[in-house]
Amino acid sequence: MVRKAKVRDAIAIYHLVNDYAREGLLLPRSLNSIYEDIRDFWVYEENGEIFACCALHVVWEDLAEIKSLAVRRDARGKGIGKELLKKCLEEANELGIKRVFALTYEVGFFERFGFSVVDKRSLPHKVWGDCINCIKFPSCDEVAVSLELSSIKEQGLDAKQTKNSK
Fold it and tell me: Does the pTM of the predicted model rise above 0.70?
């Protein structure tokens, strides 16, 4: 079941994200930053166990970022990442966000849901807000992808879609 994260989920989120960070697939997150941003996170929980997480972080009045999308390896391929992304996009739409972006190594995953590769320089709020403090700055090798939320319905990710469709 996908649900908003609770404070008690922070340690599980920390382990999920940093397991991938150790392999260079995600940026590391401190436990403190996860607690501070816990309201940004969605989790996938089954039988009291957290299998996946994803965050929607508002960057500016019309811009939000998908962050820390991680699915436990033994749960991959079951559509959990899609469900988390869908929830984040629905939430962004409810908040009145017009464009959502991600910095990723998994470009193909995002492209399947209508995201397009964009130049990182088109995201000045991100670059000067977060990126400048990142250990990879200025040599970041992540790829920026972006989605205009008006295209959500065109991509079949609207709130009315059933879990098993697409």
Answer: yes
Query: Could you give the CA distance from residue 143 to residue 106 in angstroms, rounded to a whole number?
Result: 8
pLDDT tier at 26, thresholds 50, 70, 90: confident
Contacts of residue 53, Cβ cutoff 8 Å, sequence gap at least 6: 5, 9, 12, 13, 16, 17, 41, 42, 43, 44, 68, 69, 70, 84
The H-assigned helical ranges of the chain are: 10-21, 31-36, 80-95, 107-111, 124-129, 152-155
Question: For residue 100, what are the β-bridge partners?
Answer: 64, 147
Residue 93 CB neighbour total at 10 angstroms: 18
User: Distance between CA atoms of 63 and 71, rounded to whole angstroms?
Assistant: 24
Closest CA to 101 of 56, 50, 47: 56
Are 142 and 103 in contact by the 8 Å Cβ rule? The answer is yes
Which residue is it, tokens 């079951």? 78
Least confidently predicted of 78-82, 83-87, 118-122, 129-133: 129-133
pLDDT tens digits for range 145-158: 999 997 555 455 54
Residue 2 has φ and ψ, to the nearest 5°, of -90, 135
Give the pLDDT confidence score for residue 165 in this predicted structure: 36
